Structure formats: C-alpha cells, structure tokens
Amino acid sequence: MTTKPNMHYADLQESYLFRRIAQRIEAYELDHPGTHLYRMGIGDVSLPLCDAVIRALHAAVDDQASTERFHGYMPECGAPFLREAIAAHYRERGVVLETDEVFVSSGASDELGAMLDLFDASSSAMVIEPAYPAYVDANVIAGRPVVHVPAREEEGFLPEPNESARADVLYLCSPNNPTGAVFNKTQLQAWVDFANACGSVILFDAAYEAFIEGDELPHSIFELEGARTCAIEICSLSKTAGFTGTRLGYTVIPRELVRAGMSLRDMWVRNRTTKTNGVSYIIQRGAAAVFTPEGQRQTREHIAVYKRNARVLMDALDEAGVWYCGGRNAPYLWMRCPDGMGSWDLFDRLLHEVQVIGTPGEGFGSCGEGYFRLTAFGTHENTLEALSRIREI
Ligand code: MLT
User: Fold this and answer.
1) Whole-model pTM?
2) Which of 13, 165, 174, 317 has the fewest CB atoms in 10 Å of its CB?
C-alpha cells in the first residue's frame, strides 16, 4: 500500500507569495553580496517590543525559575488573566464580551488556517481579491471551493455584498491587507446583514485595527448590529505591538454563533483542548502588558512611528500624481504601477535598480495585477532613503 498524500497541494502555486519574493531577493543577494536592501515588502515590524512588554517578559522568565510561581501547561484557550485583559480592552470600546468568548492564539495566520476545522469539508469560502494569500491557500489545501470576488479601484477596493459573494465562509479584512482600504460602519453592516440572511459565517481579520484613527470607522465587527450571530473576529499583536517574532493573537467567537444547532464557540473549545497545549506562559504575560495603560501608551507611540512613515509615502505619491489607497488607517499603501507596468516588473526594477523591496500586487490574486504594495513598517530613516531611491527612477 502506498500512502496517498493530500493531492490538493498540487493545486497550489509552487511556493507561497512571501517565499517567492524571498527567493528572488536571495538570488539578487547572491549576485550582489553586501548590498543593503530597503525592505518595504513583507509587513514585518522594525521597532523592538515596548518597555512594558519587555519587563513583563523578564518577570515571567523569573516566575519560571521559582518553584512557587512556575507554570507548566497553560489552559488551552488562554490564561484567564489575558482573556480578561482582552475582554476589558473590548469593553473600553463599547463591545461587551464574556471572557470565555475570547481565545488566545499563537497568531492570526495560524488561527485563520486552523479555523477551517469548524466548517464542513464541503464548505465554500468567499475571498475578496486582492487578498492576503493565506486565505486562499488554506482553503486550497483543504480542497474547498473558493469564490473569488474582485475588488476594484472604482469602488475603493471595498466591494458590496451581492449574489456572487454567496459562500459558507466569508473572509473580510479591514483595514485591508493588501489595499489598506477600511470598511465604514454602513459598508460593514451590509456584509453582516448579508451573512445573517445567507446563514454564512464571516471570518473577520482585524489584525490591523490599531492603525484606525478615531472611533468613526469600526475597529471590531462586534460594533455592528447582528454580528454576534454571524461573525468570528481574529486579531493579532504582531502589528499592534511588534509581536511578529514573539507570536500572540486572539480570537472572539460569540455564544450566539450557532449553525445546525452547534455552538461554534463550544466546538472551538473542543478543538483547542484537543489540538494545542496553549500559548507559553511567558508570552501571555508579555501580551497582557500590552493591555495595561502603560503598554497602550507605548504601543501607540510605536504605531505613530509607522503612521509617520505612511504619511511621507502618501505625500510622495500625491506629489508624483500616482493613484493609491490605504496609508491613512493602515500600514499598507496600495499604488497603481506607473506607465501600465506589470507588478512583478516593477518589483524587479525596484530591486535591481534602487535596491528597494515592495510586494507585487499580482501576488494577492489576479485583480492585484498592475498594483504594488508598500509597507510603512520600516525604520523612519530607511523609509526616507527608500523613498528618495524610488524617486530616482
Ligand atoms: C504581509 O506582509 O502581508 C503580512 O506581514 C503577512 C502576515 O501577516 O503573515
């Protein structure tokens, strides 16, 4: 007998988008050893963890050295101290959650893939494209049909729901990766109403909510009426608090989310208690510090640095008369490639001529062709230098 592998892997592109980009960069570095590259590609942060987090991490390491304060296995769904801190953070914004509707995860991308376990193997997934490529790839790996809904420049890359978007699971991301576009309350309410009318479940990726300015735009889907019967929210400290390498996220599944008589919250408890032993005590202590007043102040200071980068990028694109969206309430700027250039052509040109790395729009789906993504996550100095190099060409 020969073991049959999951043949759906054959339906994927040979490598994941950011791996494909890394391979091109590696080839360039091999030919040009020692050349400094200006990285505005993958959305990885450049500032270190804030002081409040670092102190909490150190204290937690010391706990692990003490017989009295040592922690072994953690509760699979998250430590009560962190689940409560996250629920309190939502409460401050007027969203009331039970502590056990909050789940601690090792990051939003891990969670978005794992969540497919909640739905029947035949479930379809609707993805608004251009989209974060992991949504599509996770469904392709699971052999599930993907409904691609194109988003276009004319509608600000924020399509309204319509019959062609019908699917069991609806992926929404706001502020959006890669376009930086943000749904307002009316637009998001339309998706909530659509999901409730169709009996679909929204997987709402809110990884970039901390970049939203003010309270007019929704930070959480649970600010909208009816969301508790149709939505799961997936959040992350990666971009909010620089946890890309530290890893911690959180997910909200309300009690009212029930399909075919089954509570998705209860199913997720069953799933987590089976498939994980929870996130490390040390990391959860560091994460809890993000939600203290000091942690909130310090993380806001870091976000202000990235927003300043976004501002200089926006000013430069305005000055050059290049169409773009994003940047104001998101760490991503989504620009039209100049002179009808293809997005991979622009990628190669920037890499080879001025050593700047961005992300080709085509990597986020065919609707992304002709567009290019820049991130604001670099240091301010690198962003300014990258910008002056882009101006050269
Ligand atoms: C991106 O660049 O799109 C993100 O950093 C990827 C991620 O969050 O996994």
Assistant:
1) 0.96
2) 13
